[in-house]
């Protein structure tokens, strides 16, 4: 029963246990929650990106129907400084507190929060707040396009060998610069907070759409000087977050202050425009890649220098080169990172942060090298295959990239590719085949969980992590079902409350590998407690030793004698037994290097007559260890592919070069992949459980599917058109210039 | 200062009476004249299943049926629904049984975070009963393109819609209006 190498429920297709709530509209996302006497807040965003707020004229807004109060720099509470530490679990997205001073650092920065009795009243009054600004000159609208701008970040650097000498001596060289536009997470549910104070302002309950209830609880406890026990952050359903809901933003602080002052619950749902301006973005990047290789295709030097944007109020590092040192076998390598403060809302992690950008540059450069060498791009990758991690020197726990490349190439029909540019046609369309490898590190965080086995026949699991749509509720239930033999219907899972045992962020593709071991430990602990009851005085198996008992089908047994968990508890008049689990990464971290790998093969169809490109087909193979719930895991990869098509062809936050104002802060002008853009997708999940990483063999799957998609598209476009696209997104304007 | 409403007349706190049918039940409520159907559903009537993703008719998360047609409830003042039949996701399941579209979304894992999902299903239900829309994948994808899914579950959503089509026992050439809830 407890043999996770041959599971019965783990690894099986399991419909989501929260599915019916989501599909009937009963799942309560933050923005639709209500509280007795609740008021509505509507923020007023700055309309300049750089300067000073000189005056706020509030009389007209204040006199509007239903308005209760307006919060701003002139009347805002003095708070404690925001903490900002990953190590202490209280990192925030933007360390500047709301309304802290009158300096405007970016378009959309909050200048006021209007609170009224209804949403309509708050919105109407927010429109009547008049802000007077003094615009400063010298707004920095974006990366300026120089290799030496910004601040060097030594901690993100890596080097080995003598890459400069090896590059200058290399028989074949690639020396190129790549640019990726800033992107919006555009998670479907905007940031939202509902704050309620209790016990005369001594206790705070915050409903937040967040990927990290524990982090937000810890940060707010510091800002409001509350004991952690007096602050609860709740997030049962999250309309996704692709990194921009990992850490708290200022709207949550403003909402909590308003609720405290007004002694009423206050709800704020950011309007989409403000969510895009001030709720996080993937910063633009400029990457300079130099590859040196022999005529046989073996890399002799890799030099990867990156610059990314940060804001003027924070210091966010989107580490583009973080996968590069581990990607290919090469003795001479250097990676560097710089950041440039610009007048944008603060950037933050966005799905596969840093690495997805770095892999675009590296895997496009590898395609350029393959063209230069007249070598098949798959063959070039196999020639530089890293059999162990060249960065750490450690063996991989499990790496099946070669199998991914071979399997995906075969299913795609790569052998039918004529390498000559523009040689494959179908009617008016030119067909391009391109490919890229992909990777994402496998990480694990400490996690705690609690289990109750109850006399009513149910099992409860609680953990302070979240389900952002990846299926965490379901895989936690699968784990409990696996270890107890109970049906899923009898298992209750509670996540998304900071008062539960401390769980990990839903980020970095780490939630599965972090959470399930703790859940398993808690289940086993509860089963041990149950066996103790069963074998003790008056127990169902009195006189036997706990080791004599087998666990299965929701009961304990000894030979033919089987008693359900519920009966064991009832026999001893017990309501329940509890189990605790607490797990963390261990010594394996020093013995192996852990990474997932994969490969994407893409067919594009380019119609030169109307300069239209379509991604027609994507065939991918992913080595992610074991998938706990294969359909949900495949869904993650398929979703990553869709987001990769957006990154490759559509998505860019456009900032006005004159004044750094965000131009396209809405869902129509910021172009996203739709149903009609979705290609035929064939995703294979290789099943090589990584038992060195954890007993479930799972490495996580949230981000890897996105990495490698954009370069596979740009490489396919080169094959179709002969024009190399080094800037993302590859817009119709860029395509027109190439046809 | 936001330009788009700077010259609009000052709103009062008066309300207007709205008589309409919501998920099959006749309702009479008082609404602010500037209240949008989406906000009335979510904030006044406590029907949170209809989602707000953009408030500008750009994402489709707020799709409901008004007299059998799929509409963005964020682009519709509540008072425009006078005498009309409004169906939300809460009205799609009947007698505790999931609608075939909901059932196939469950089986096909046609969602992740679930936030765009009610809108996807309301659009899907309407298009399956609309004889102007072909039954082929390309036609369905085109017709569904007003509903953004940022999780990118498009493949499974398409599969779910086509599976529901089979379960509803008809194709685009034989539409049955009563399938529109």
TrEMBL record, chain A:
Annotated region Disordered: the residues are 145-167
Q: Which branch of life, at top level?
A: Bacteria
**Organism, as annotated:** Salinicola corii
- The Aldehyde oxidase/xanthine dehydrogenase a/b hammerhead domain covers 24-137
PANTHER family membership? ALDEHYDE OXIDASE 1-RELATED, XANTHINE DEHYDROGENASE
Question: Which InterPro entries does its entry note?
Answer: Ald_Oxase/Xan_DH_a/b (IPR000674), Ald_Oxase/Xan_DH_a/b_sf (IPR036856), Ald_Oxase/xanthine_DH-like (IPR016208), AldOxase/xan_DH_MoCoBD1 (IPR008274), AldOxase/xan_DH_MoCoBD2 (IPR046867), AldOxase/xan_DH_Mopterin-bd_sf (IPR037165)
Pfam families named in the record: Ald_Xan_dh_C, MoCoBD_1, MoCoBD_2
Keywords in alphabetical order, please.
Molybdenum, Oxidoreductase
Gene Ontology MF term list: iron ion binding; oxidoreductase activity
Write down what this protein is called: Xanthine dehydrogenase family protein molybdopterin-binding subunit
Which family, according to the similarity comment? Answer: Belongs to the xanthine dehydrogenase family.
TrEMBL record, chain B:
Return the Pfam families for the record: Fer2, Fer2_2
Instruction: Give the InterPro entries listed for this entry.
Output: 2Fe-2S-bd, 2Fe-2S-bd_dom_sf, 2Fe-2S_ferredoxin-like_sf, 2Fe-2S_ferredoxin-type, 2Fe2S_fd_BS, Aldehyde_Oxdr_Iron-Sulfur, Beta-grasp_dom_sf
Q: Which GO terms describe its molecular function?
A: 2 iron, 2 sulfur cluster binding; metal ion binding; oxidoreductase activity, acting on the aldehyde or oxo group of donors
Q: Which residues form the 2Fe-2S ferredoxin-type domain?
A: 16-92
Coiled-coil segments on the chain, per record: none
Q: Which UniProt keywords apply?
A: 2Fe-2S, Iron, Iron-sulfur, Metal-binding, Oxidoreductase
Q: Which domain of life is it from?
A: Bacteria
Q: What is this protein called?
A: (2Fe-2S)-binding protein
């Amino acid at each position: 029963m407890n043999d996770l190498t041959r599971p019965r429920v783990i690894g099986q297709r399991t419909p989501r246990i929260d599915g019916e709530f989501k599909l009937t509209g009963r799942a309560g996302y933050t923005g639709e929650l209500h509280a007795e006497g609740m008021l509505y807040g509507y923020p007023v965003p700055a309309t300049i990106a750089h300067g000073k707020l000189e005056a706020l004229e509030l009389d007209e807004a204040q006199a509007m129907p239903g308005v209760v109060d307006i919060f701003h720099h002139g009347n805002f509470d003095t708070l404690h400084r925001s903490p900002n530490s990953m190590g202490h679990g209280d990192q925030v997205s933007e360390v500047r507190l709301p309304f802290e001073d009158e300096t405007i650092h970016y378009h959309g920065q909050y200048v006021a929060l209007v609170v009224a009795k209804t949403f309509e009243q708050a919105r109407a009054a927010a429109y009547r707040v008049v802000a007077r600004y003094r615009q400063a000159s010298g707004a920095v609208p974006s990366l300026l396009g120089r290799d030496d701008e910004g601040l060097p970040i030594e901690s993100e650097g890596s080097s080995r060998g003598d890459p400069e000498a090896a590059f200058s001596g290399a028989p074949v060289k690639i020396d190129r610069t790549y640019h990726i536009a800033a992107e919006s997470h555009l998670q479907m549910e905007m940031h939202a907070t509902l704050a309620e104070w209790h016990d005369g302002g001594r206790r705070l309950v915050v409903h937040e759409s967040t990927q990290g209830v524990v982090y937000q609880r810890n940060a707010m406890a510091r800002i409001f000087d509350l004991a952690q026990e007096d602050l609860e952050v709740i997030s049962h359903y999250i309309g996704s977050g692709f990194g921009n809901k990992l850490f708290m933003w200022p709207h949550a602080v403003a909402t909590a202050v308003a609720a405290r002052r007004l002694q009423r619950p206050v709800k704020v749902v950011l309007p989409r425009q403000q969510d895009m301006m001030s709720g996080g973005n993937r910063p633009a990047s400029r990457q300079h890649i130099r590859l040196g290789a022999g005529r046989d295709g073996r890399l002799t030097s890799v030099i990867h220098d990156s610059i990314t944007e940060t804001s003027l109020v924070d210091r966010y590092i989107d580490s583009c080169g973080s996968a590069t040192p581990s990607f290919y076998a090469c003795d001479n390598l250097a990676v560097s990172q710089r950041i440039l403060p610009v007048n944008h809302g603060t950037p933050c992690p966005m799905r596969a942060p840093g690495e997805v950008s770095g892999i675009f540059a590296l895997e496009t450069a590898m395609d350029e090298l393959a063209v230069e060498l007249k070598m098949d791009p798959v063959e070039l990758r196999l020639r530089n295959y890293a059999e162990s991690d060249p960065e750490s020197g450690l063996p991989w726990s499990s790496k099946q990239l070669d199998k991914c490349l071979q399997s995906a190439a075969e299913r795609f029909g790569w052998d039918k590719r004529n390498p000559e540019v523009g040689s494959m046609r179908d009617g008016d369309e030119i067909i391009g085949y391109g490919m890229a490898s992909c990777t994402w590190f496998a990480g694990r965080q400490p996690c705690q969980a609690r289990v109750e086995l109850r006399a009513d026949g149910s099992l409860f699991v609680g953990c302070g992590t979240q389900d952002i749509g990846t299926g965490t509720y379901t895989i936690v239930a699968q784990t409990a079902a696996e270890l107890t033999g109970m049906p899923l219907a009898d298992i209750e899972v509670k996540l998304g409350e900071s008062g539960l045992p401390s769980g990990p962020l839903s980020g970095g593709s780490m939630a599965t590998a972090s959470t399930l071991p703790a859940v398993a430990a808690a289940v086993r602990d509860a089963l041990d407690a149950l066996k103790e009851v069963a074998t003790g005085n008056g127990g169902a198996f009195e006189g036997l030793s706990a080791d004599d008992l087998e666990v299965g089908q929701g009961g304990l047994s000894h030979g033919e004698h089987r008693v359900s968990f519920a009966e064991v508890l009832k026999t001893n008049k017990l309501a329940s037994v509890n189990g605790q689990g607490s797990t963390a990464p261990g010594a394996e971290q020093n013995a192996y290097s852990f990474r997932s790998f994969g490969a994407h093969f893409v067919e594009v169809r380019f119609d030169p007559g109307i300069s239209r490109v379509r991604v027609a087909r994507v065939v991918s193979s992913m080595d992610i260890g074991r998938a706990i719930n294969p359909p949900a895991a495949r869904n993650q990869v398929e979703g990553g592919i869709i987001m990769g098509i957006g990154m490759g062809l559509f998505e860019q936050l456009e900032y006005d070069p004159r004044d750094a104002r965000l131009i396209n802060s809405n869902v129509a002008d910021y172009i996203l992949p739709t149903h009609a853009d979705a290609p035929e997708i064939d995703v294979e999940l290789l099943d090589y459980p990584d038992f060195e990483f954890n007993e479930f063999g799972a490495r996580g799957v949230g981000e890897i599917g996105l990495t490698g998609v954009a370069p596979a598209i740009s490489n396919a476009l080169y094959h179709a058109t002969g024009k190399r696209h080094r800037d993302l997104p590859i817009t119709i304007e860029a395509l027109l210039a190439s046809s | 200062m936001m330009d788009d409403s700077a010259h609009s007349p000052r709103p009062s706190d008066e309300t207007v009476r709205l008589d309409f049918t919501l998920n099959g039940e006749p309702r009479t409520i008082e609404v602010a004249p500037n209240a949008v159907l989406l906000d009335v559903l979510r904030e006044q009537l406590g029907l949170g299943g209809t989602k707000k993703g953009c408030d500008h008719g750009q994402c489709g998360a707020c799709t409901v049926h008004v007299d059998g047609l799929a509409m963005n409830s964020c682009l519709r003042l509540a008072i425009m629904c006078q005498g009309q039949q409004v169906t939300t996701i809460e009205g799609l399941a009947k007698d505790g049984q999931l609608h075939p579209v909901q059932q196939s979304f469950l089986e096909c894992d046609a969602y992740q975070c679930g936030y765009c999902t009610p809108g996807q299903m309301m659009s899907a239900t309407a298009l399956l009963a609309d004889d102007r829309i072909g039954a082929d994948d390309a036609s369905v994808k085109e017709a569904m393109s007003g509903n953004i899914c940022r999780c990118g579950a498009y493949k499974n959503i398409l599969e779910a819609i086509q599976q529901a089509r089979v379960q509803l026992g008809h194709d685009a050439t034989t539409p049955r209006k009563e399938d529109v809830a």
